[in-house]
């Protein structure tokens, strides 16, 4: 690849993986297999929770939208990375990069929001079973999902507008396999990136509030479950909560790690593994 006039070109160069051709092909094949498996599993969940009359409760309604978010999330970055590896060309146009940042940040916010709503759903189901149908009636569930998608779009617009208002004066090389906002910020030579930091700080505050809400919900849930007299009842209640709680832990911990690595000029192999985990592994999880 001839890297000429990198600073003045309209697009960017993605340098997330090795320049060795054999490793590029291996990366593309592995990503393709995982992508197909993830796509298939999420489509199956969406179809089953749509057509099966026994899976029309709020829990499965939110699960369907979580699967749709996951399907969209992995489709934003992985196909582009596969294509770049197969073509031995890390170039991505500015338009494609803008689209990646918008969709990636929108879905990231939406995923955080829907995990919070799902924890409230479990809280209402276990702590207030007699009032559950009133608390989580269909109109409220639909309103919550609409709010989740709209708020995600607003977050994505804010991130994208502030990120691409930056003057990129350094070589347009992104040390990732997708248009990563922290890596884009390193291409600025002025303080205009502080607007993005402001948006990130606001989102971080909201994320902390969501995380606190989830923790409080599960404190009440576990307190209620432990008072259930039968072991079978406790086991059934735990089985509906623990997979969701595990997903929450992985989502927030990996997201926190990604933002704490803002000052890393040259991401390590471990940093790339975290990015892969966020983009692929966390969306190919058990959604029991």
TrEMBL record:
Major localization class: membrane
Mode of membrane association: Multi-pass membrane protein
GO cellular component: plasma membrane
Keywords assigned: Cell membrane, G-protein coupled receptor, Membrane, Olfaction, Receptor, Sensory transduction, Transducer, Transmembrane, Transmembrane helix
Localization of this protein: Cell membrane
Keyword Cell membrane: yes
The protein's name: Olfactory receptor
Organism: Chrysochloris asiatica (Cape golden mole)
Gene transcribed to yield this protein: LOC102821019
